[in-house]
Amino acid sequence: MSSPVLLIPLTSEEGKDFLPPAVQNKLNSLPFRQVSLPLPLADPTSWRSVLEKHRPEALLCAWGCPPLPDDLPVGQPGQLRYVAYLAGSVKKLVPRKLIENGLLVTNWGNAISRTISECGLLLILTAMRRSGYWNVAMHRDGAWKDGMKTVTQSLFCRSIGLHGFGAIAQEMIPLLRPFDVSISAFSPSVPDAVFQKYGVTRSTSLEHLFSQHDIIVELAPYTEKNHHIVTEKLLRSIRPGGAFINIGRGAVVDEAALIRVARDRADDLQIGLDVYETEPLPKDSPLRGIPNIALLPHIAGPTKDRRQDTASFAIENLQRFLQGKPLESLITLEIFDRAT
Prior knowledge:
This protein folds into 2 domains: 5-108 and 304-338, 3-Layer(aba) Sandwich (Rossmann fold), CATH 3.40.50.720; 112-295, 3-Layer(aba) Sandwich (Rossmann fold), CATH 3.40.50.720. The chain is 34% helix and 16% strand. The model has no long low-confidence stretch (mean pLDDT 97). The protein is built from 13 helices and 12 strands.
């Protein structure tokens, strides 16, 4: 029996980032017949003919891959059966119909959790030290500290409230512990055993979480129920001198309310954002230019040097695929429908 074909359509930059030599060696150990396809295609209309020519059973791809045709035969031997996507949302790549027809699809899953949590720590420290403000003010305005009037704060011995206690929040715990902080989380669906494992206190309500902690980190998943669940009332209840950090999903927060609160509490609330209701963030967004808001352009995920982590995760899934084992971070129809 001939080895199944693994088609690998990547741009040159994607190939360097996702598949450095050590990771490529892991991939080479799998019993696939690899077919590398440099992107972009000289003729974008040739994508279907490429798929028909090579008849891959698996696809390893990233952002540069053309969308799959919605009438592509999938799910059966001799057809495309599995897409290992090296990035996040698959909506621009895989039509829903193909998943309905049996195509297996995974994305980077929890392979990026530690880099997102690292960025969360960066934004917390940025907020407490107000470094976003000072970086701009010193470059643009020639600013300097004003003795005792200048207020910065430390992360040491503060109380942290996590809204959501999934993989990213769990990765944050060891990063925060050296600062001698107390940590609580609000996540009703997470079992008590997980809280106990990480030594985290369960918060009984969002009202308690926001009002009783110095720093709130937003990590709740986006669902219809969670749309704008972070209200103006909750944001205003954060303690004076506190901070609100969002590295989860933009639409979980009422952004218009966040802007009002940020302006009203310019002296006693710092905000750090990596995600937004509308992305890319519009150039005329009122979030821009508010001095107590630090902005990042949705870059908390895998840094350029750690994109290889998502490829290693995909290679593990490719091994499971060959062995007929369940795949990690499988994109179900439910997950597909609620993805942003």
